[in-house]
Specification:
Elements: E1 2-7, H1 12-23, E2 28-33, H2 41-50, H3 66-69, H4 76-85, E3 94-97, E4 100-103
Parallel strand pairs: 1-2
Antiparallel strand pairs: 1-3, 3-4
Amino acid sequence: MKATIWHNPRCGTSRKTLAILEETPGVEVEVIEYLKTPYSRAKLAQLIADAGMTPADAIRMMGTDAEERGLADMDADAILDAMAANPAYVNRPFVETEKGVRFCRPQDKVRDIL
């Protein structure tokens, strides 16, 4: 099985999720450091929708100026535009496998799609 993680190595939850993926037999892991290789807007929209979330649910407030910018009060398209322009606004990690997409907070949610 292939698993793709949109990863930030500075994030403890992202590192723990990656460790679960790497320790699971039969899982081929693709790591995308999304701050270096940003999401396309379309991919981001797909991940959020497939995880059963809204763009507002996926905003990272901590460590960003998202709150000051009023990101949470914007419509879904404006939030996606802001996230695509600045991937630091996207909370993490997202993991995608053939079984679906999960926003892995807490990290054990990744087990749902393995």
